[in-house]
Each structure stands twice: as C-alpha cells, then as structure tokens.
Amino acid sequence: MAGAAEAAVRIVELLAPVYADVYQLSTTNAVGVPVSLHRTADDCLQLAFVRPNICKTVTCVNVASGCHCDFLRFLRSLLVLIERQIIEVDAMYVVASRSTDLLPVATLQLHVRVHQEAKLGTSLKDFDFVLCHLQATMLSIVLDNQKAKKEAINSALEDARNNSSCHVIGCRLHPWNNAKPMMQPKQKLHLPDVFHSLTSQMQVGQMEIRDDFTYLARMTHSKKQIFMTDLPANVLQNILCLMNARDLSSLCGVCSLFQHMAYEVVPGLNLVLYEHQRRGLKWMLRRETPSLTSIPQPHPFILSSESESESAVAIDLIQNRVITHPHVTASDACGGMFCDEPGLGKTITMLALILRTKGQTTDNTPVNTSDPGRDMTRSALRSCGSRGRCVNVEDVVSSGASLLVVPDPLVEHWKY
How many independent structural domains does the chain possess? Predict the structure, then answer.
C-alpha cells in the first residue's frame, strides 16, 4: 500500500524567492517549512507559512529584474483546482545551500494528489498549463556519481531560473521568450559546441571508479586482501578490450565497476567513438536492460488515487478530464529512439550497439494484457487489428538478430 501511496502523489518543484525571515527556520529543518496558498480579498495570492506565522505576497524568483513570467499564472490555476476540489496539495518551502560560493536556493515543493470529492466528468482543458507538469517522467536516469548529481541539480536550477517561463524545475515545455531566438542573427555552426551540447543533454550516470581514500586505507592495512578490482584502471580496461560481446555481458553482471567500465568497450569496432557517441551508446545499452520492466512506476498519463475501487476518481492527463479509474501503475519498456543531428554519427553509434550486443538474445519479458490502463490507450489510437498488423504477445519469441530500418541512400553508403 505504501507503493500505491507514493504513485498517487506527483511532486512539482518550483523556484521561489529566498525570504530572510523564513530562511533560518527552513535551513534547520531538513524537510522545510509547511506553507499554504491563499487568495486575499483583493484577489492577490499569498504564501502562508505555518511556522513562523508569516504571509508573503506571491512573486517569482526574478521579480527584482522585472520578470514577466508565468509563475503567478501557474499558482493561480493551481489554487483554482484546489478550490474546486479537483486536487489536494501539500506544500513545503525549502531553502538549500548549494556551496560556499553559490547563493542559497529556495523552492516550493508541491505534493499533488487527486481530491476524493472530485466531480466525475469535469473538463480540465483550461488547466493544461498546470496538468502537463503532473505527467510522470519514466525516462529519468538516476545518476550514481555525486559530482554529476550536483552538476545536474545546479544545471536544472539555472534552467528553471533563466530558461523556463514557469520556473518549474526540470520543465522543458515552456522555454522562456520563444520569439527571442528568431530575432537574433543566425550563427555559424561550431562543431565543438554541438558536441558539448549533446553530452550535456544526454545525462547518463557514471559511478566513481574507485574511492582513493578507502583504497589507500585497505592497501596499508597489515592484513590487506588483494582483489581483481584493485588492479589499475587502465589494466582492467585493456582486459575488457580483449573480450567479446557475450563475455562482456557476463562480466557486467559481476559488479557495477565492470558494468560501467564496459559501457565504452565495443568489440570489433576499429575506430574511436567521440564523447557524445560513447554517451549515446551507453544510453542505448541502458535502455536495453531487462530490469527496466520489473520496476513499477507511476502511470505517466493517469493521476490515480490510492483506491483499488473501480469507482475511484482519477485525472486523465491526456484528455484533461476527471474519470473513474482504479489505482494503476506503469512499467517501462526496453528500447528507445536515438535521434541526433545529421552528420554526428548515428550510423556508427548504432553499429557499435549491434557489435556490443552481438550473440545475445532478448529476454521474454512478461506482458500484462489485463492492464486497466490499456483500454483507455486503445480508445485513443487508430485500430489496426482489422488490417492484419497485430501480433499476439504470446507469439513473440526471443531473437539474436538486429533489425535495421534505414532509407535507401544509407544502404548505398554501406556497400563496398
């Protein structure tokens, strides 16, 4: 039931101004300060803090620079949904100190769930600006490297402040000032900048290869034990380069160290991949991991309650309507779509993926054909059953082949 409770709540985090009189209390409390959203008699919005008893007029984080964003519009629409008993929101005001040379950052953490008294059939099309932020992210990658985590957090905060009109952390749907790039003169293509942008956008976690402090303490111990992972990193890398794809796959199951070191090894590839190509290969290998399908996740398009009842209310985030739907989760699927600009080496990256998985077969992932969310999905898609384009999941078998779908000009390029 705890998993159902977690899946029934969506968390939206917005940048907020740092209030000096609330800052000290929020930094001593790890979970932040409870806050609620109120409407004043003159139709202004206020943030009411429980402890201390302080009210603040809602302003965006860039109010000092004359920002004209959609932050106030977001909270106003959110308050209307609360007043109409469509959703319930628990809000926390959190101030975090990033480092000694960076200013503290304040955020509003909104825990949103469906109101039990939401009226069935209510149209929410006027609130798409809020509801689009409630769609669960199923492709997020958990970073293992602490440095990468900090860099990703700082980058997301800066994007929310400077590049997003809603100031929602992680939102890419509402870029700031869409008309501005059109007014600027077109700049010449600078290939190193393109490579850098690719590697920064494709965030795939990289663990620390070895903790030097722990390694040194163990090596100087009187009863030290030597393990294979104590070999120099370049020696381990050379060993991995001598293995074929099947051996690499088996070694990756031994420990996470070999798994992360083997990501960039491609048996049979007689060239060195660029950094963005290595990250692309690593992302695709991760997308083909069978364990992706075993972890239940919140349904991306249905905000359901904790109840398993058929009459439980939920919000359809695609049609923007209150519906009846039991609690539902979703599972990720293996595979993905690798999209890149022309000329940056998609073909080489895909060939590297084929070489990296050569000789391996797919796993028969159990398919739940009675998923309560499938009926809704089918109703929104064009029927293909009558055209003979459907295959029963029970008839799908494992295969060691790689299917390539390419345009005719690319086939000509591959001919010798």
Answer: 1
